[in-house]
């Protein structure tokens, strides 16, 4: 077992992970897939899996952000918590300082902590289909971020300062309640921006014609729709 690198338990009926700490003997274990089970929490012994670089927990019944995952520290590169029932993201998220891809889509999250700005290696952040109404300005500090998906939330605005988002190539804001495009978006000249299905009445004059912006399908009262036009 010491040579085990990947382990997939996807699509079973797991509801208890007692004894999972035994996997700590698998010192080369890099990827663990526990997606599509019936997991509602992780035992403390999960923290022992310090060799993990990829962890998939999508399509379970988690109601809180699993604290043992935070104790995995900077070695974790990919964390997928999509389609659970998570309502709160803890400030201790900054402990995952090496994270590159974080998937929080399809949960019930109402806000993100400012500490998210400490994730200085993150390349993709997906928060689609939550209840976000405001964003922490610290998102603007994520210089390595390439893809930011915030579609199908309750946002009425975007962050004011995007000058730090120097690597951003894809920004999905479709399916929110945005009425006016912030002037700050003009700084994202190389970025594909999707603001379809918002409440935008007209494009401000300060937007240059060479910006790649999709504004198709504006509506007065956007609601979450799983069939909403997908991000780029």
In short:
The protein is an all-beta fold.
Number of helices: 1
Class inferred from helices and paired strands:
mainly beta
Mean pLDDT: 89
Main sheet attributes: strand count, strand direction, barrel closure:
10 strands, parallel
Itemize the secondary structure elements and their pairings.
Elements (H helix, E strand, L loop, with lengths): L5 E3 L22 E3 L20 E3 L10 H4 L7 E3 L20 E3 L20 E3 L20 E3 L20 E3 L19 E3 L17 E3 L18
Parallel strand pairs: 1-2, 2-3, 3-4, 4-5, 5-6, 6-7, 7-8, 8-9, 9-10
Structural commentary:
The structure is a single chain. 2% of the residues lie in helices and 13% in strands. With 232 residues, the protein is mainly beta. Strand 3 (54-56), helix 1 and strand 4 form a beta-alpha-beta unit. The longest helix is centred in the N-terminal third of the chain and has 4 residues, at 67-70. The radius of gyration is 19 Å and the shape is elongated. The model is unreliable at 219-230 (pLDDT under 50).
State the main characteristics.
232 residues, mainly beta, ten-stranded parallel β-sheet, 10 strands, disordered C terminus
């Amino acid at each position: 077992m010491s040579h085990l690198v990947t382990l997939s338990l996807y699509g079973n009926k797991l509801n208890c992970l007692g004894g999972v700490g035994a996997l700590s003997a698998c010192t080369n274990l890099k990827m663990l897939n526990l997606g599509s089970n019936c997991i509602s929490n992780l035992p403390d012994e999960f923290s022992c899996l310090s060799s993990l670089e990829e962890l998939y927990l999508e399509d379970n019944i988690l109601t809180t952000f699993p604290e043992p995952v935070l104790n995995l520290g900077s070695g974790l590169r990919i964390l997928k918590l999509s389609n659970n029932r998570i309502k709160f993201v803890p400030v201790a998220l900054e402990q995952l300082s090496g994270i590159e891809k974080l998937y929080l889509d399809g949960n019930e999250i109402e806000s993100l902590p400012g500490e998210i700005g400490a994730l200085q290696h993150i390349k993709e952040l997906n928060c689609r289909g939550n209840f976000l109404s405001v964003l922490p300005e610290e998102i603007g500090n994520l210089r390595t971020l390439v893809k930011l998906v915030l579609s199908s939330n309750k946002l009425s605005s975007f962050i004011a300062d995007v000058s730090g988002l120097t690597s951003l190539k894809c920004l999905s804001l479709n399916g929110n309640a945005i009425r006016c495009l912030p002037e700050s978006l003009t700084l994202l000249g190389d970025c594909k921006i999707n603001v379809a299905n918002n409440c935008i009445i007209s494009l401000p004059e300060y937007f240059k014609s060479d910006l790649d912006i999709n504004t198709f399908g504006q509506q007065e009262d956007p609601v979450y729709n799983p069939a909403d036009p997908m991000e780029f």
